[in-house]
Design goal:
Blueprint (H helix, E strand, L loop, with lengths): L1 E6 L3 H6 L2 H7 L4 E5 L5 H10 L6 E5 L9 E5 L3 E5 L12 E8 L2 E9 L8 H23 L2 E7 L23 H14 L2 E2 H6 L25 E5 L1 H4 L2 E7 L13 E6 L2
Parallel strand pairs: 1-2, 7-8
Antiparallel strand pairs: 1-12, 2-4, 3-4, 5-6, 6-7, 8-10, 9-10, 11-12
Helix pairs in contact: 4-5
Length: about 260
């Protein structure tokens, strides 16, 4: 099962820039999207034009027009879809999970878009609550012993290996110890595995986000904030992975790069 996760930075903008064509060319089994920024009809129209018209789709749009939105796309049937996470966040378009039936096995695939946050503000407190709710959910996965994977833009660089300018970002949202502690806890308490890091080995990088501004992309001054975090039974089946970094700034179709992992099912 080739699983590709991508923050598209707006599905319609990504389609215009060639992003859907790039994703379709990966020949994936499952694709997860973040920052879709579209209602259901707009998403399905873009997908139909982009080569995903016959795929199964689970979509949680954001209630605020033009913001957030997450989706799971699958060649394989979806047995169940859940978009609720602790109630508070149900209309924000930040969480959707689907049980995908692949060759007789059920794999739970979640697409998450975590808040950007802002240190020492209510926005950061909301981000912390969301991360806590995610932790509760992945704990349920672990207790069930299921094949499951959390994909998406978590807006957290877990360690200094995941951020080029880590010294300059100490004390800022995205690189706060309290945020990183959630990822530590998911691993220690629930056995969640950072599949990209395991397959790639030590950093620095590979990064998955670079600012549109300045020379960040050309200098590879990025952040690794996009992940595939799998439960132990699924992580054991991860055989290869990569980051879909564009060859040049001009070929970028999002400020993020896709995260690709192949699982032997």
């Amino acid at each position: 099962m080739l699983l590709v996760s991508a923050n598209v930075n707006g599905i319609r903008a990504a389609a215009r820039r060639g992003g859907l064509a790039w994703l379709a060319a990966r020949d994936a089994d499952v694709v997860t999207l973040q920052e879709v920024r579209a209602d259901d009809s707009q998403l399905r129209s873009a997908l139909a034009d982009g080569g995903f018209g016959d795929w199964h789709v689970a979509h949680a749009p954001g209630s605020a027009k033009g913001r957030a939105g997450v989706a799971v796309l699958s060649r394989h049937p979806l047995k169940d879809v859940r978009a609720s996470l602790a109630g508070e966040f149900d209309d924000q378009g930040r969480w959707v999970e689907a049980d995908v039936l692949v060759d007789g096995e059920v794999v739970t695939v979640a697409s998450a878009y975590v808040h950007t946050g802002e240190a020492r503000t209510p926005r950061q407190e909301e981000k912390e609550r969301f991360l806590g709710a995610v932790g509760d959910r992945v704990g349920e996965w672990a207790a069930d012993g299921r094949l499951a994977v959390l994909t998406g833009d978590l807006n957290v660089a877990h360690t200094a290996d995941d951020l080029k300018n880590w010294k300059g970002n100490r004390g800022k949202a995205g690189f706060l110890p309290a945020e990183q502690a959630h990822l530590d806890r998911w691993a220690a308490e629930h056995g969640l595995v950072d599949v990209t890091r395991r397959l790639h080995g030590p950093g620095p990088g590979p990064y998955s986000w670079w600012s549109w501004r300045g020379q960040a992309f050309d200098n590879d001054s990025g952040w690794r904030i996009d992940y595939q975090l799998a439960t132990a039974p699924l992580a054991e089946r991860a055989v290869s992975g990569s980051i879909g970094r564009a060859d040049s700034y001009a070929e970028r179709w999002s400020d993020h790069a896709a995260v690709l992992v192949d699982y032997a099912l």
